[in-house]
Amino acid sequence: MARKVTRSIEYGGITLPALVHSEDSIQYAHQSFRVRDSDVFNLTYPKSGTTWMQEILTLIHSDGDPTLSRSIPSWERVPWLEQNTAAKYLEDRPCPRLISSHLPPSIFPESFFTSQAKAIYTIRDPRDVCVSLYYYAKMSSFLDYKEDFGEFLEMFSAGKILFGTWFDHVKSWLAYKERTNFLLLTYDELLKDLQGSVRRICQFLGKDLDASAVDSVVKNASFESMKGNKMVNYSLVPNDVMNQSISPFLRKGISGDWRNHFTSEQTAAFQCLYQEKMKDVEIKFPWDELQRKIYWES
Ligand code: PPS
Known about the structure:
The protein is an alpha/beta fold and 298 residues long.
């Protein structure tokens, strides 16, 4: 494997890969970017369904027509607010702008919090996030990677990883979950019922799609369809940046792959950590077993 160049930058207590971020780009997002009431944000901790939501939002805003999602790369259609290219893609874009971000609220644009802009926060089982990130780190030239999964899990658990700890990210965004302009979704519910989820998102966005348009969103945002779409499967990114022969960007697209990677000791240790970190969070998630003491009860 080619030697990795894992330069990173620090901002507001988190680490970001220097390949596509700079202090200026984060400062632009945090302090200069002017949120419009019509903006729609796709918020995630990395590897939680960002790309999937980029596709869903594009298709919803195109009334199910896949022309845009098949002709323009996802990172241009629903660009990341914190990346170097944000101003270029976003400043003159007509409303509604579709915008992705992995930033925590502490360094999110201040104007968002007093605006009517809508935000969808997609959250995924942290164990599956860790596994997905492990393979992403392995195939990318710009992320810290440990071959030994146990060591990688330790890095992930300690938040010595891009965008800080999963726990801080999730808990700080969950604080906004009661707002009417904030929609909380899980990766699992997208997997279980994509059609129902698309309808929920349409309702949240005030988009009235007919049944055939919803069907087209569901069809074109399926894992298989996205895997075959070069505007979203990252095959446009050079091999020396993302080597998809090591692991594809759209890898498995399932829930529960952590079971194939965590040992029983790692499972128990992570559950302990989860219970401690999430003890003040009342909301129940599909991976709720983490909040029940099943390993001690049995
Ligand atoms: S990133 O790098 O933060 O933007 O990654 P992100 O897009 O958030 O997460 C990538 C994982 O999401 C999976 N994915 C999907 N799963 C099911 N269906 C669809 N349509 C879909 N699109 C993306 C992708 O495969 C990554 O998960 P893993 O577990 O690695 O397969």
